[in-house]
Amino acid sequence: MKTLPLLAVLALSAPLLSIAADASTAATAPAAAKPAAPAKAARAATAQQAASAAPARQPPTSADIIATAPASAWRDVAPENLLLMTLPQGEVLIELAPRFAPRHVDNIRALARGGYYDGLAILRVQDNYVTQWGDPKADDEDTGLKGQGKPFPAGATTQVPAEFSIPLKGLPLTVLPDIDGWAPRTGHVDGFPVAAEPKANRAWLAHCYATVGAGRGNAVDSSTGAELYAVIGHAPRGLDLNITVVGRVLKGMEFLAALPRGGARMGFYDKPEQRVVIERVALAAALPPDQRPSLQVLRTDTPTWQELLEARRHRGGWFVHSPEHTEICSASAPMRIKPTDVKLERTPSAVQRQ
User: Fold this and answer.
1) Sign of the C-alpha dihedral, residues 201, 207, 209, 215?
2) 130 found inside a domain
3) 20 to 30 A from 145, CA-CA: which of 33, 60, 242, 312?
4) How many domains does the chain have?
5) How far is CA 343 from CA 70, 71, 77, 86, 258, in A?
6) pLDDT tens digit string along 157-189?
7) pTM (2 decimals)?
8) Which residues make Cβ contacts (< 8 Å) with residue 263, sequence separation at least 6?
9) Domain of residue 275, residue span
């Protein structure tokens, strides 16, 4: 298998200026009158030859920009917004989005603190769609199962209103100028992909790869956060504004995306033994400080972010064709483990408030 090289931005170089001697002037001018002319022309020709021989300087790649981003271009992930889901395959780290789904996030925090998710299971893995987890014995409208589910812990509620969108006005949305087929305006807030409709004054989290949503039944307000899913395939943007999105996976997507696919019934596992048991789901804030993952997400309101977007639009090197385009689902904000020896410095913000 051939290894693809790192992506690079297309090199843009200005054309070299041609320097031509004026034959008529050279012929009529006395040789002794302008002794410097031949030397000047020679120097210009030598400089032109050197410039032509020098390799074109390639703009920084996406990897270069991320590697050299200043400390102020990163933000810490708050422990109260970080879920740690432990599977037999490894750990999945999820950042919650209380700005967009505050009631659901509060309920998820209560469920995690009360140990509700511990011992539940991955119930569904549908190819190119979602991996879904929850209580196998929870009430199910399709099968008629009722009253056998695991009780909610103290502080969690069984009734949460739908949170499909929030007001756009005042939202610190860094607008993406590239055209989107699903919404008249798109961009990012806190690293999350956001779509918006200015005329209706509403904005919502988009269904991109690694988006985490709250499963619901037929009733609009039937989601509680007790059953969650992560997008593992091509962005199913048709789900936008139909399901409450609560966050996104920052780390560990390989453990969700590589699971065996379920059966013909929308990817749900046919047999209990096919399910993957969830060992634990913990809120980072509830753990001792030395057990909390220290993660950072690249800020999407800085010049560094704009530079990264440009690198993703204009691709060179290995690429024969540059798309000259990006969109919210392909422009995901990178994550890293927080370095232990950095000092934050202030960086001008590139945010556009709506």
Assistant:
1) positive
2) yes
3) 242
4) 1
5) 9, 7, 16, 32, 37
6) 999 999 999 999 999 999 999 999 999 999 999
7) 0.81
8) 269, 270
9) 79-162+203-295
